[in-house]
Amino acid sequence: MKDASNTGDTDQRPGSRVDIFDTTLRDGTQSEHIAYSLADKLEIAHALDNLAVDYIEGGWPGSNPKDMGFFDAAKTEKWTNARIAAFGSTRHAKNAPEADPNLQALVASQAPVLIIFGKSWDFHVTDALRVSLQDNLDMIASSVKYLSAHCSEMLYDAEHFFDGYKHNPEYAIKTLHAAASAGAKCLILCDTNGGTLSPEVGAIVSTVVKEFPGVRIGIHPHNDSGVAVANALAAIEAGASHVQGTMNGFGERCGNVDLLPVIANLQLKMNRPCLKGRESLAKLTEISRHVYEVGNVQPRDNQPYVGRSAFAHKGGVHVSAVARSAATYEHVEPEVVGNVRRVLISELSGRSNLVATMGHKFNLKDNPDSLKKVLNKVMELENQGYVFEAAEASFELLVRKTLNGHTPFFDLHGFRVMTDVNDKKESVTEATVKIEVNGTTEHTVAEGNGPVNALDGALRKALDGFYPELKDVTLVDYKVRVIDSKLATGAKVLVTIVSSDHKSRWTTVGVSENVIDASWHALVDGVEYKLYQSREVTK
User: Fold this and answer.
1) Number of compact structural domains in the chain
2) Does the reported pTM lie above 0.85?
3) pLDDT for residue 8
4) Which residues contact 162 (CB under 8 A, 6 or more apart)?
5) Kindly report the CA angle at 422 between 416 and 425, in degrees rounded to 5?
6) How far is 34 from 250, CA to CA, in rounded Å?
7) Which of residues 341, 376, 402 is at a domain's end?
8) Cα 220 from Cα 207, distance rounded (Å)
9) Could you read off the pLDDT of 64-88 as tens digits, one per residue?
10) Which of 7, 54, 5, 11 has the alpha carbon at shortest distance from 240?
11) I need a surface site. Which of 38, 62, 153, 238 has the fewest CB within 10 A?
């Protein structure tokens, strides 16, 4: 296992470097909807290494075979920027360090960085561990001392530190002294329950920094009060130089601190360098979406800095101002964090929105008649239930059709969807599609786990021989929304489909009283948009 040493420094003045410790692969997996395979964990670890985080916490080797497998695999992998860390707890009260299974698993991991947590809150010591306060101090000191001899860097997580400090500050500080005197190179203060507010975090961290001159102090906040990012920044402002969190804020309950806005704020707002500076900043959006995709989790559009909506503008007044100067409604340039500016289209849109989104492609700026024609079409369709503000692909096709710039890639002769229930009470759906491409008729059939899946399969089968680039396209999200619930089963529905070719994503929509018909329109838009894009790239 290559040791890419990057231990940071103990200089905690403004302008000094902050270490980024990522625990997506350990704390992040405690999210309710996250379950990574070993291959997933290695893939994310390499993405984090490419981002240049300082530490990657691979897991708890003493807790499950998968995490031990990660460390076995990591030994033969090349790590360019990050140091691999293994996580565990202090020894059991009845065990000597050399006989404790948890500590032995940490040693067996051969990770260059080891990190353990111990109890800082006297309430936890007496009620959870059920040992004396002195025994807990001995457990911390002996565990840290033993592990320090088996790694190149020993870190210590002070669990529930802020709650413990508020209840018994003298004892909480004693637990830190026990770890520091035994060889811990960094003391990380954990807001494990996520209930501490930023002013308290800043004041307590400042006290700890003064108590431990020359020792790195870290922060590990959870987001149960919705202020994890603010707490991390308050701790750093107070003297911490090490922050632990996860990509996209994954974690138990309400999650850990989201490292992405922390990293961006440190470099862009606080003059605190981290990672590889601007080079890493430009990768933030990419890694955010990559981690979402590997975890099969839908990205959060309103996520600061990296979300699809982070630099999206809808109101015509806003768009007009942004066209003149982006700083009027953007606090940073989206490209700095690898994101892009988006202008949303809706019935509220002004001409400036249309020019900003499609003007460069269809010369709308110098053609007021075309501009008016498109705007009228948008309002007409939105009156029918269409929503284009987050469906740029369907909107581009709308513009092409409105301005007579659209030539269909195939003609539909018909489709049929049937669902049967077999003798095992399992539903089986079959779709038949008949299309014509350049005078050639294709009649295909496919089965799926539902009507849309079957339709998608039949359409792909019919088109694959003509348009091989469609083999790279997958459907990553499908949503149905009832437009007017008062009409009950007779209401129109809006179907939204998100497609991906593993390089980009695009969204299409369809509206109909029939959910399968609406789905078909969204599916076709997704296919045609991909075909237009692939032809523009190869021009």
Assistant:
1) 3
2) no
3) 38
4) 189, 190, 191, 196, 200, 201, 204
5) 120
6) 8
7) 402
8) 17
9) 889 999 999 999 999 999 999 999 9
10) 11
11) 38
